[in-house]
Description:
The complex is a heterodimer of chains A (306) and B (357).
Chain A: H1 8-34, H2 42-60, H3 63-87, H4 92-110, H5 136-140, H6 145-163, H7 165-175, H8 177-182, H9 187-213, H10 225-235, H11 240-263, H12 269-287
Helix pairs in contact in A: 1-6, 1-9, 1-10, 1-11, 2-3, 2-4, 2-9, 2-10, 3-4, 3-9, 6-7, 6-11, 10-11, 11-12
Chain B: H1 2-24, E1 26-31, H2 41-56, E2 60-65, H3 72-83, E3 88-91, H4 97-106, E4 111-115, E5 124-129, H5 131-145, E6 150-155, H6 160-176, E7 181-186, H7 193-205, E8 210-213, H8 219-227, E9 231-234, E10 247-253, H9 256-268, E11 275-278, E12 285-288, H10 296-310, E13 321-322, E14 328-330, H11 338-342
Parallel strand pairs in B: 1-2, 1-3, 3-4, 4-5, 5-11, 6-7, 6-8, 8-9, 9-10
Antiparallel strand pairs in B: 10-12, 13-14
Helix pairs in contact in B: 2-9, 3-4, 5-6, 5-10, 7-8
Amino acid sequence: MDLSAINPVLLIASLMVAATPILLAAIGELVVEKAGVLNLGVEGMMIVGAISGFAISVETGSPWLGFLAAAIGGAVLSLLFVLLTQVALANQVASGLALTLFGLGFSSLMGQGYVGVKPPQMDKLNIPVLTDLPVIGPILFGHDPVLYLGIALTAAVWAMLKYTRMGLVLRAVGENHDAAHALGYKVVRIRIMAIMFGGACAGLGGAYISLIRVPQWTEGMTAGVGWIALALVVFASWKPWRALLGAYLFGGVTVVQLNLQAAGVAIPVEYLAMSPYLITILVLVILSADKSRAPASLGRIFHATH
Amino acid sequence: MKLTSLLATAALGLGLATAAVAEDKTKVGFVYVGPVGDGGWTYEHNKGRLAVEKEFGDKVETVFVENVAEGPDSERVMTQMALDGADLIFTTSFGYMDPTINVAKKFPNVKFEHATGYKQADNVSVYSARFYEGRAVQGTIAGRMTKSNIVGYIGSFPIPEVVRGINSAYIHAKKVNPDVQFKIIWAFTWFDPAKEADAAKVLIEQGADVILQHTDSTAPQAAAQAAGNVITFGQASDMSEYGPMPRVSSIIDDWAPYYIARTAAVMDGSWTSTSTWDGIGAGMVGIGEISDAVPADVKKEALALKAALADGSYHAFTGPITKQDGSAWLGDGETADDGTLAGMNFYVEGIEGDIPQ
């Protein structure tokens, strides 16, 4: 065993990177569910975002345009879900699952020409003095900009839900769509916007994997991150900061367990491998003891004349 | 009475006709653990499938299902393939072993071929490649090339095939560099690019400047490339798009000749249950082009080892070798028997850590 081989600064820096795709997708899905829609297509939207972002950044040479394309790609795919659930009033669970399956297949079709291609790199933040500070430099000021975007987005969604009229309306739609409709709010329109926001966020999360975390395109490369994000929203009791905590915890324990393995710590590997799931669930379940509950209209189909 | 027998004859005739149509084309099924575009393991199996199609043209029809989880779900996929009229089914991952045996019992007329396992039946053959021979070549290059003397190894599942690879690479790295140390991470997945990349990054952060992988995607190659002075080896496929740095060489699985031979055997009725385990000599394991990032003398040494493994003058597990717990395994000049290798569940002396049980 050689714990000194683990560099805590690098560890924290890399856990933030590992957590960001989950965080981005979870924040998007949180808004969707707050509006009363259950979209199980996160994984599909992520992977479509991953390839859209990858393809565009390779073609244009700009990672920024890539992330923009990823957000658009995810949002466009979510329009399919909108069509099924908001227009055709199909079952949300089935539509979401279909979206995931479709996204996985469609992304491998889109990605045919991009296997083995290297994407342009996104520059990391470099603030003179601050980035060079020992310890806090690499942790707080040495990342790529999208990682900060994830944190900023969490704060923005939290503030939006808590303090703004828009947030109040969104929550009203999610809690009781009939009442919201009676008050004159456009339930379907609000839900469509929320779903597209969720799609854009999932797309960003996917592109974060294909452009920064790995960085390459491989079929099926999200490998279940979307499902983890979905679970995280529930365990975080639909609260943005808890989703952030959960994502960092999950990413953190994942990276820590790999570090412990490499350092040869004498804990059976099976326990280390399951620890991210176990610890994240445990902490968030304890936190959710305050009886936060799901939006009341979650997953229910809305039609104005029913 | 007359009508009934007429109908029966007609039905029989119809049955024979459909059977005759079905016999026209030999249907070959493939079950894949990852996507065909993984650039590694499944990619090479799919190349083998395409080679079968090319070889036999209209006489053969191939089907495949990708991303099939190991375990019970794979049983469903195999059953469906058999029901759809497959004559020969290749199940291409270790975790399909018991499902293959189970499904084979239900379809005695369908031939099954399970890769990298050890359970045979009347209609189940097993086949694998001696990847550990390729690992010996990798270990030699790794031992010579490392400056930090730390070699990172990303394992998938703690099964004999993976353990064999670790031991073979370690023995040969140690032989050329007595100070070498292996850091091993078990990813518990065959394919998860993000996790594989994380594992590679962690190993690099902990000082490894050589990364060996036994997982299927090219993600560790990308991570090594981003880190700079780290070398890697293509796994299962050449992964030459990452050469000349970080990928300095590779182990290539070439399944095409085997798949063609077995399909031909089903066609002419000579198929029997066999156990095949071929290495560099038979061409099932290929060593990818050693890039210019490797100094000429190291390259020469690696190629000499490859030649010795190929003509059988040298066995990758030649004694004296001691087990990790200090007990003797192979005496001086003694070579390992296939039975021990097939079930290898111990590290050799010098490797730190335990194999997850």
